[in-house]
Structure formats: C-alpha cells, structure tokens
Description:
Elements: E1 2-10, H1 14-25, E2 30-34, E3 49-52, H2 60-80, E4 85-86, E5 90-94, H3 99-110, E6 116-119, H4 120-126, E7 137-141, E8 145-148, H5 149-162, E9 166-169, E10 182-184, E11 190-198, H6 204-207, H7 209-212, E12 217-226, E13 242-245, E14 250-253, E15 261-265, H8 283-296, E16 305-315, E17 322-325, E18 332-336, H9 346-357
Parallel strand pairs: 1-2, 1-11, 2-9, 5-13, 11-18
Antiparallel strand pairs: 3-8, 4-8, 5-7, 6-7, 10-11, 12-15, 12-16, 13-14, 14-15, 17-18
Amino acid sequence: MSHTSDFVVVGGGVFGVWIAWFLRQRKYTVTLVDAYGAGNSRSSSGDESRVIRMAYGADALYTRWAAHSLRLWQELFARVGVSLFVNTGMLWLAADGDVSAKQSVGVLSEEGVEHEVISERQIAERFPQFSLDDVKFGIFEPNSGILMARRSVVAVLDDAVRQGVQYRIDAISPPASRAFSEFKTAHGETLSAGAYIFACGAWLNKLFPELLSTRLFPTRQAVFYFGTPAGHAEFQVPRMPTWLHRCDDMYGMPDIENRGIKLANDLHGPPVDPDSENRLVSQAEELQARNYLRRRLPALKDAPVLETRICQYENTWNGDFLLDRHPEWNNVWLAGGGSGHGYKHGPAIGDYLSKQILQEAPPEPRFSLASKKEIQQRAIF
C-alpha cells in the first residue's frame, strides 16, 4: 500500500503537529506520522502541563515568539471549544545581582508585555508560601501561565485532521540513499512526498546519527507532583502562581487539577534514550526536590509524592532551536532542539518553518544547523 502527499511530517509532538497544521492552512496535502502517537509519554510534549511565559533576558526574539504563540494557542482553543490554557500568572524569583532578570524587565517593557517588578517585601505579602532567603525581587507576568501539554497537542492534531491532514501511528526509517523520495513504515506502507519534515525530538539523533549525535543532547528530567495540605487553597490558583526560582534553577506550578503542585529541576540531567529509558524517578532525584521544598516551600517539606514523570529535554549547545534543511537531502527538513523551552513556542515554530519550506520568509541564522556546536554551553533559559 502506498500514499503520496505534498509533505510528510515525522513526529507528533508540539513542533510536528503545528508544522502540519500550518502547511495544511496553505492547502497542501500533509501526512503526519508518529511511532507512539501524538503527545505520548516518551515524548518531550507528553506529561500534563507546560509553562508559557514571556521573559527571556535580553533575547527579544523569544519574547516575541512566546507572545505570538500564546495568541495562536488561545485562538485554537477558542475555535475548537476547549480551554487548555490556565492563566496562573508567572513569577520570576531573582537575586539582587541577576543580570538576566533585569534584562528581562527592559525587553518586556519594549515589547509591550504586561508585567510588574515587585520587591522582596511585596512578594512576601502576596505569595507567603515562598521562603525568600536570597530572593531580592521578582517579575510577575499576569497573563502567562500553563498549557495543558498532552491535551493541547491532541487538540492541534484533531483540528489538523478535521482540515484534511492524514495521521498515522507508525514507525519509519530514512532511506540509505541520497535520493529521498519515499520510505516504508513498520506496517509496510510506502509514504512518498515532495518534502519531508522530521520533527521528532530526541529521536532525531537516532534517525540521523552521523549528522546530529554530537549536536543534540537529550537529557533526563525528573518531575514531581507533591500533595498539598487538606483544606488549604494557598497552593492553588489564584493564590499561587507558576514560578521559576532563578537562584535554584527550579520551577513549579500550582495545584491546578487537584493533583498537587508540580516541581522540576531546570538544570540538564544525564543523557537519555527516549525509547528505552526507565521512567521511574530515583531516590537522589526525590531528595533534590525535597531539599528545595524544605528551603523554599517549608509548608510542603513533608508533602507526599502523588505522581512522578521522567520527561526529557532535547538540547542544542546553547538552547537555540534547530529549524533547518538537511545539508545532503534538499527535500528534508529538521525541526528539533526544543531545549526545555520549546513547547510554548510550538505555534511560532510551525509558522516559521512552514514559511521556510515554502520560501516565504528569510531564515533566522541562529536556527541553522551550521550554528550548532558540539559542546553544551546553555545560554537560553
């Protein structure tokens, strides 16, 4: 059995579904393929929730992309009749000498993003859950919050399918020859297209090992859901925001579905294989999370663990995305390097890469393959 379309998109995470969606808006035929299904628990787009926020230090491009993406997310949710954005607000907790946080204030002002700079005293009054210690000021984004991750990916996919995108749950391998004209799936179907977009996250290294294994670094990231005290609402919206502790590189979300607060370390973990990684947290990972609770959220220092996840980041050397044409196959495009902050930008990435493929806009050099070094020196947070 064979199937031909204008484009085949491999990967049903947030990058892939939005790329497929945008190409379909331009009336092209599109087939989307994912080995485990859209938003699956092995993917970087799995789990229940992701932060969407605007501050990026001095980097105005990502601030603009985040704002653009939030508008597109909200337009999608309004169109399909689901509410998958939770407006919790976003609180940045920073030390006095935090240059990036101070740069964020300037960019947010220049870009017209609503925000407040709040003092240590104001943080303590408004959000007494936090023990501030070395925190000296905060940035509060009232219009930022949480995207329901897995369900949002499925919502984009469902909307794309309604508009004519073909969807397959199947596995593929790229051909060995340079004439990339078709490939066979694990179920024996032959898929052919004018161009192929590989938006498959941590699997990019497996599909293109010679090209990408030294440029993309998938890492293991432990996530915890801690139970809150019975009858207490101070860990729920609106009394608690989503937050990032710049001093500790930890971030968290309030209890939004009676599942407990979500807590995770933003520092890169050890290397991970997305197919075979055991998704159980270790004692060391739990100890790290509990040490944070004792220091920063003392009312939860003995909170029970309700749920855990092992997610993954798929990092480039500095955190900039990889959105570029394959250097050997002219009709193959690569979309990856989400680097722990890519989910929120899914709509902007779909918009950007579809325009690159259709030659409708100039490329951004920072997203090129040539810009990706073979070291890890994270600069985008």
